[in-house]
Specification:
globular; Ribose 5-phosphate Isomerase B, Chain: A; binds D-ribose; alpha/beta; 5 strands
């Protein structure tokens, strides 16, 4: 999987703003197709607004993947996972980012700017964008069950 062929959106609240800026700039410099959906400053905002904006954009098909950042990553992952078709994974290291793609087919990765540093965040984003889901077999069956929960 070449992550550079994907349409990616990135969003954060005020707590995640500086990390979002850093990761967004890095991904663009590396040649990824990334769109910044805000927020645009460190002024306090509700993480719910920006998490929903990015999750809806992925769910609606405008983007293939989303990256969402808040202070801990927890709030944005809770919000994103309430959106139909979204499988959001809160990741704190590269291994989790790889596995959320291979086993869970996550289409959104969430990170906490008060938890990880710029370097780890860049690595997580890169892993997340460059691994495929292991289609078929046991993981497919489990993701199918997750997807069915959207309709329950
Ligand atoms: C903001 O202070 C903080 O609550 C938010 O960024 C996030 O960590 C919520 O889960």
């Amino acid at each position: 999987m070449d992550g550079k062929s994907l349409k990616v959106c990135i969003a954060s609240d005020h707590a995640g703003f500086l990390l979002k800026e850093n990761v967004c700039r890095y991904l663009k410099e590396e040649g990824y197709n990334v769109t910044d959906l805000g927020t645009d400053s460190e002024e306090s905002v509700d993480y719910t607004v920006f998490a929903k904006k990015a999750a809806d954009a992925v769910s609606g098909g405008q983007f293939d993947r989303g990256i969402i950042i808040c202070g801990t990553g927890i709030g944005v992952s809770i919000v994103a996972n309430k959106t139909k078709g979204i499988r959001a994974a809160l990741c704190t290291d590269q291994y989790m980012a790889k596995m959320c793609r291979e086993h869970n087919n996550a289409n959104v990765v969430c990170m906490g700017a008060r938890v990880i540093g710029f370097g780890v965040a860049r690595d997580i984003a890169t892993e997340f964008l460059n691994h495929d889901f292991e289609e078929g077999g046991r993981h497919q069956k489990r993701v199918d069950i997750i997807n069915a929960l959207d309709k329950a």
